[in-house]
Structure formats: structure tokens, C-alpha cells
Specification:
Elements: H1 22-37, H2 46-58, E1 64-65, E2 72-76, E3 96-102, H3 129-148, E4 156-161, H4 171-176, E5 183-196, E6 200-202, E7 205-206, E8 210-219, E9 223-224, H5 234-250, E10 260-268, E11 274-275, E12 278-287, H6 290-310, E13 314-323, E14 327-328, H7 330-344, E15 349-351, H8 362-365, E16 370-378, H9 398-416
Helix pairs in contact: 1-3, 3-9, 5-6, 7-9
């Protein structure tokens, strides 16, 4: 269940501008709930894009829709220097800080009983992207006001990226649209139901894992189960690929890399007394280490071919590259840590572990330094175990306020460190 934003949260210090007003906080809650009710899949986020564009234009900004047709970028440029004198071009070529959100939903049903439950069958914001989007929007609105007041030191870019849930993610298309042009550092957040609202989880270095998709087709001569010696026993071959390939791959790479092949589907045959001619397996390849991820396709291909050949099956392998690990750059991680500490105090930042989940934020970090924080969305005192990608996933909406103030403080601190 969600709660009203701001409940049970300590007040941020008065000497740092960009505190979220009550009126804007309520508006953002309503905006998030509207997105939650109207989820859209990757590269289909037309309504979401239009809603963001309209609100940013209402704030006097000039958002630009990305070349793929959904998602957008928007620059917030200081209108006056801090002293109030007319602003020249000094510092205008300084690399910007980018704030990134992902805007797509998942193809699963929303099973919650709430007033803002999804109105689209088999579609749900079950990963918190509606919160990410609302947080970056809110930060943009606050920073736009600070820019008008002459209190924003340097430009900031907002990135609303489509298709994070579609391998290899929408980030490469966003990059091709120019979202990183002029950007020197990028930050983002991801909802984490294990972290209590009012806190963020941080770690320098890898915070997520690589994730690829694997499809395997096995073919061979079928026949009667009474005479398996005259056939290619594809059911046994598929079973051996399913059980032995993960173990074989694990023995051919440093165990510290965390390379794991895990199957999610196996299919073969239609009758109990017929050996089929075709079998299929599909699964994922996840990896904690960037170097091991780059070596993974060759290792997996070789292991599958070896097992398939042993059982006289012909293999066809489709290895779909997903995303590399998100590797937080130390100084960007410290920027988020310092911003959260200023807003909520040192207790509001906790260490977090590297997960085996994938996130296409990693593609940005292949080009510019940056960091991702885990945004706490678990209600204070709630001991229920919750997880992402579940139909009953929801957040404590106080997280919206926390995320906005984290990003605004990051933008102000980043400017001070120039």
C-alpha cells in the first residue's frame, strides 16, 4: 500500500534551495498515479511522452521528443548568474549533469486493489518506472524555478528514456538521439522495495549485473521411443544442455565473475511414445563482471555445441546481447551520497549489494561517468517481503519527495564543484 508523501520524514535543511513545496508534492503524486493507471510498453509510450512534454512546456521549458518517437530530453539553462548580473556565455560550455528516468511499463497484470490500479489489461508499472519518471519531472520543475531565480549554477539535462525493459534497452537509441551530447556526468535512481523510504542504497563500482537472453533450438532424427538408438534423442539432449551447460560454463571462467546461465523455458515433443525432431530452450545469461560478460557469448556457444554434438543433435543458438553491468563511478557516487546527506542526514544513505538484475543505464556509463542509487520505497515499519516485476508491486509515495530532493541537491552540488 502507498502512503502520502512526506509522512515520518525529517525536514531537509533550510540553507539548501530546492525543497519540494506541498503543492508540487501533491501534484507529483497525482502525476505518478495517472502514469500508473495508463502504463505503456517500450517504444509505445506516446501518452506518457505527451504528458511529460505538456507539463515541461507549461513550466516554460523546451523539451524535445527523441528520434524514436517516444521519450524526450529537456535542458534547464540558468537565466542569471548567482550574483544577479546579466549572464554572459561564461561556463556555458561546461559539461552538463544529466538526470535520467525510464518511462516504460511491463507486460504483466496489475493485481493491486488501489484507486490508481492499471486500467490497461496485462500492463503494469511493476518496476517503479512511473516513480523514476515523476522524480525526474519534479526535479526538473524545481530546477527550472531555481534557474529563473538565478540560483542554478550550471545547465542540467533531463532524460526521459523509453524501452528500458526491451533488450538491449532504449538507452542506445536515446544516445543516438543525442541525449549525452554536452553531458559530463549522469545520475539515476531505481526503486528498491528492500530499502526503507527516506533512504537510498549506494555502492561504488558495479551495482547491477549484465543480462543477456539465450535461445537454443535442437534438431535431429525423431522416431519411436521403442528404438531410441535409431534416433537423435532430443529430449535427453535438451535435458543435458539444460543441466550441463551452466555447470560447464561455470568451470571455464573465474568463479568471482558470477557468470550464471539460467533456463526459463524448455519444450520438446507432444506424445509420450514419440521422440521429437525439435526441442527448444530459452533463458538468461547474467554476469557480475564486465570482462566476463564480454567473453560470455563464446563460452556459452562452445558449451552448447559440445553437449549437443555429444548427443548427435544439431544446435542453432541465438544469443541476444542485453546490457552490461551498471558500474558506478566513484566521484558520481559520492555526489549522490553528499546530496542525500545534506538533505536527510548521514543515516539516510546505506550500503547496498550488487544485484543480478540488469539495467540499461549501463549503456550511458560506457560513455560518461555516472552513478545510480537505489531509492527506498518500502514503508516505514513494513516487514512484508516485496519484489520488483510482481503484479502487486507498489511504493510508499514519500519516495517521490526524497528522489526529487536528491536530484535537486545533486544538481546544485555538482555546480558548486565545477
Amino acid at each position: 500500500m502507498s502512503r502520502d508523501a512526506g509522512a515520518d520524514l525529517p525536514a531537509p535543511p533550510d540553507d539548501l534551495p530546492g525543497v519540494l513545496s506541498d503543492a508540487l508534492r501533491e501534484e507529483l503524486i497525482a502525476f505518478r498515479r495517472d502514469l500508473h493507471m495508463h502504463p505503456e510498453l517500450g517504444n509505445q509510450e506516446f501518452r506518457t511522452t505527451a504528458a511529460l512534454k505538456a507539463r515541461l512546456e507549461q513550466a516554460g521549458l523546451q523539451p524535445r521528443v527523441l528520434s524514436v518517437g517516444t521519450g524526450l530530453m529537456c535542458d534547464i539553462v540558468p537565466q542569471l548568474p548567482l550574483g544577479g548580473a546579466p549572464r554572459g556565455d561564461e561556463g556555458s560550455d561546461r559539461p552538463m549533469l544529466a538526470l535520467r528516468a525510464d518511462i516504460d511499463a511491463l507486460p504483466i497484470p496489475d493485481t493491486k486493489t488501489v484507486s490508481y490500479r492499471s486500467t490497461v489489461p496485462d500492463r503494469a508499472h511493476a518496476c517503479g518506472h512511473d516513480v523514476h519518471t515523476t522524480v525526474v519531472l519534479g526535479a526538473g520543475l524545481v530546477l527550472a524555478e531555481l534557474a529563473r531565480e538565478g540560483r542554478l549554477p550550471y545547465p542540467v539535462r533531463l532524460i526521459f528514456q523509453p524501452a528500458e525493459e526491451v533488450l538491449p534497452g532504449g538507452a542506445p537509441d536515446a544516445i543516438a538521439s543525442g541525449v549525452l551530447d554536452g553531458v559530463g556526468r549522469i545520475v539515476g535512481v531505481h526503486c528498491d522495495p528492500k530499502v526503507e523510504v527516506g533512504r537510498i542504497g549506494l555502492r561504488p563500482g558495479p551495482i547491477t549485473s549484465a543480462c543477456d537472453r539465450l535461445e537454443v533450438a535442437l534438431d535431429g532424427a525423431g522416431g519411436h521411443t521403442a528404438r531410441p538408438h535409431l534416433t537423435t534423442d532430443l529430449v535427453t539432449a535438451a535435458a543435458k544442455v539444460a543441466t550441463e551447460v551452466p555447470a560447464l560454463v561455470a568451470r571455464r571462467i573465474d568463479a568471482r565473475s558470477g557468470l550464471a546461465v539460467t533456463w526459463g523455458r524448455i519444450e520438446a515433443g507432444h506424445a509420450c511414445n514419440v521422440i521429437p525432431q525439435h526441442a527448444e530452450l530459452s533463458g538468461t545469461v547474467r554476469c557480475l563482471d564486465l570482462a566476463a560478460w564480454r567473453a560470455a557469448p563464446d563460452l556459452v556457444h562452445a558449451a552448447i555445441d559440445e553437449i549437443a554434438t555429444l548427443y548427435r543433435a544439431k544446435s542453432q543458438i541465438t544469443y541476444i546481447r542485453g546490457v552490461p553491468p551498471v558500474v558506478n563511478e566513484p566521484s558520481a557516487t559520492e555526489l549522490l551520497r553528499d546530496a542525500m546527506t545534506l538533505r536527510r542526514g548521514p543515516y539516510a544513505v546505506e550500503d547496498t549489494e550488487q544485484s543480478l538484475g540488469g539495467e540499461d543505464f549501463s549503456w550511458y556509463l560506457e560513455r560518461v561517468p555516472g552513478a545510480m542509487a537505489r531509492l527506498g520505497v518500502r514503508a516505514v515499519g513494513d516487514t512484508t517481503r516485496r519484489d520488483l516485476h510482481c503484479g502487486d508491486f507498489d511504493v510508499d509515495e514519500a519516495a517521490i519527495q526524497v528522489g526529487v530532493e536528491l536530484f535537486t541537491a545533486s544538481a546544485l552540488l555538482d555546480g558548486c564543484r565545477a
